[in-house]
Amino acid sequence: MEKIRVAVVGADGRMGGTVCNAVKAADDMELVAEITINDELTTSTLNGAEVAVEFTVPSATQSNVKKLIDLGCHVVVGTTGWTQTAYDDIAAKISEDAAPHVLIAPNFALGAVLMMKFAAMAAPYFESVEVIEMHHPNKVDAPSGTAIATAQKIAAARRDAGCQPLPDATETDPNGARGSLYDGVPVHAVRLRGLNAHEEILLGNPGEQFVLRSDCFDRGSFMPGVLHAVRKVGALPGLTIGLEKILD
Ligand code: NAP
């Protein structure tokens, strides 16, 4: 069996290091490049990689992805902090048939992806909904990409169902205690030593609360999703956003 040649960009980071080990352990993949912040992205450093997995920092990811596209490599991106403008920029760059393919997922954990799906299903049936994301304090961006994606899916489902705006009588909140609004949905970010990656969605109606929660205790929880994306990206032309698009 021919192995997929994989490069990891951000190889000495927490996620990048975990991806390197997962690729090495996969029978159908070969880890051909471990690229750190000290390495240039070139044909030589990519060492013949067909797919690059990018887990770096929000300030570097877009430019890394563009360089990888120019080098003819398919890209699987886990770095968070992407905006719609940045997605549009990448989509425009790879609009031609022969261009490499890019898959960006704010969350590669199956439980988190299902949680977002269930949140969108439930949201139209409740008056109130709020998102709380909780992470380790070394995370540099807030709120998490998953929380933003969750809020956007909730908002879209409520819009489609013709729901009323969320009730909230707050008149004064000078320091943002009510969180940030994403498409009208409040998102709260907690940074706590001891946590890894967690999210809760609170849905409320008069007299009842429904809570959805996902906990990723360990970075290993993301690896089946990352490896699945590496296997699939070669057959997915253009830009694909979200692991849910490749769950058969
Ligand atoms: P991390 O430990 O800080 O790792 C980031 C690594 O990228 C660091 O080693 C950093 O080097 C390196 N780096 C920075 N700029 C670079 C560049 N231009 N080229 C190559 N490497 C570069 O962070 P992490 O915990 O692994 O998280 C990485 C990203 O993944 C974050 O955005 C996080 O939110 C996201 N994430 C996504 C998922 C998902 O399922 N999609 C899951 C978990 C985390 P220095 O330390 O030397 O600056």
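^ NAP complex. The pocket of NAP is lined by residues 9-10, 12-16, 35-37, 55-58, 60, 64, 78-80, 105-108, 139, 197, 222 (CB under 6 Å). The two ends are 23 Å apart (CA to CA).
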